[in-house]
Amino acid sequence: MIEVRVPDEQEGTKAVVRAWLKQIGDAVAKNDPLVELETDKVTQEVPAPAAGVLAEIILDTDAEAVPGALLARIETQGVAVARSAIGKTAAQREQITPQSPLAPGNGTDTRLSPSVRRALQQHGIDPSRIQGTGRDGRITREDVDRCVADATVVSVGERSTAQPMQFSAHDIAHDRMRMTIAENMVRAVAEQPHVTAVFEADFSAVAAHKAAMAAKGMKLSYTSYIVKAAAEAMAVAPAINGRWEKDRIAISPTIDVGIGTALGEKGLVVPVVKDAGALGLEQIGAKLDDLTRRARDGKLERSDVSGGSFTISNHGVSGSLIAAPIILHQGQAAILGVGKLQKRVVVRTVNGRDAMLIHPMAYVTLTIDHRVVDGHQTNAWLSRFVEIIEGWPTA
Predict the structure, then answer these.
(1) pLDDT of 183-211, one tens digit each?
(2) Closest by alpha carbon to 371, among 244, 183, 217, 222?
(3) What CATH class does 192-390 carry?
(4) Helix (H, G, I), strand (E, B), or coil: what is residue 85?
(5) Could you state, in order of their start, the residue ranges of all structural domains in the chain?
(6) 275 has catalytic annotation
């Protein structure tokens, strides 16, 4: 027997078993995807460590999957034995029978995961009415959730009859990512005392540098400049790049900056630019482009969203001027918020006299874990961050 375990690398957020891609009795090749695990940030496929037959499933769908936990066992002896000869638990033998009210017709894959079966039974949905989007056309939990959200419940034995849901058709059913995000937000607010400071930054120098770089063929986002300035500002208040421990404040040896990336109705993920303090502006820009593209394509790896020591929420891209407090990422001491870049009237001294000018301005906030840092460190960090943004050298 070969054991299949939950990968040790995890970002501290709870993982759950989302769906089994193979069932007991299935033959598997080495590195075949066996099961999907999901956190609030990423869905990860766990591959088979060896060729054989899936003999036992230990953690069922929706079970919590802590690092190192036993997921399943693969029988590597007698691989050629027919699948029907592989022992199954009583629950798995009765999973789908020809007499079962959930036995799908019209060629639908009969191997429904326990989570899918429970959801179908709960809502009275005939699986033959659902077009599966999973591997080999299998029905996934997300397919069922989508059907429920669309208020399309078909009674067993009345396959052509659509009945209204007990809630509004405009309601949105929770998916696993939304539930996990909610749990993490509640826990973060309960455990970490949030305090927010607000500054204002003039982006004129950054805008000029950005335009000059574009003229040379190098397109950079404002976020690239923000990440670079944030990394440099850590020098005046290193604890901003730290975290609270029971016996100490632990300071991260590298500046690993997470960037909140919206996924529409799905929520958001936070891919991490690793060791941003050692990278140049153009290197940061290239990494951001790659991470953002893969985040929106759903192709991030677990390593892409783990290990962050500081986070940036560039919420201004969606139109907000100020957001406070922005909920801290667990295990971090601070999160930077950057509001909408907006032309505003500012007073500047020109030739010794005050003058009203129009400059691109944005409010910037730093929300901190008050156990880790105090107001003077917060303001020192923000002052340095704004100084770097406003004093960006000419390209």
Answers:
(1) 777 877 888 889 999 999 999 999 999 99
(2) 244
(3) alpha beta
(4) helix
(5) 1-94, 97-176, 192-390
(6) no
Return the CATH fold of 1-94. Answer: OB fold (Dihydrolipoamide Acetyltransferase, E2P) (2.40.50)
| Prediction pTM value | 0.63
- 374 annotated active-site: yes
Residues 6+ apart with CB under 8 A from 38: 15, 16, 18, 44, 176, 177, 180
Nearest in space to 338 (alpha carbons), one of 324, 359, 348 = 324
Which backbone phi and psi does 9 adopt, to 5 degrees? -75, 115
Tell me the two tokens of residue 173.
Answer: 């059913």
Cα–chain center distance at 341: 26
Residue among 26, 329, 374, 376 flagged as catalytic = 374
Residue type, 11: E
Q: Render pLDDT for 147-178 as a digit per residue (tens, 0 to 9).
A: 766 643 333 344 444 444 455 667 777 776 67
- Contact between residue 1 and residue 15 where contact means Cβ atoms under 8 Å apart: no
Catalytic annotation, pick one of 123, 194, 359, 370: 370
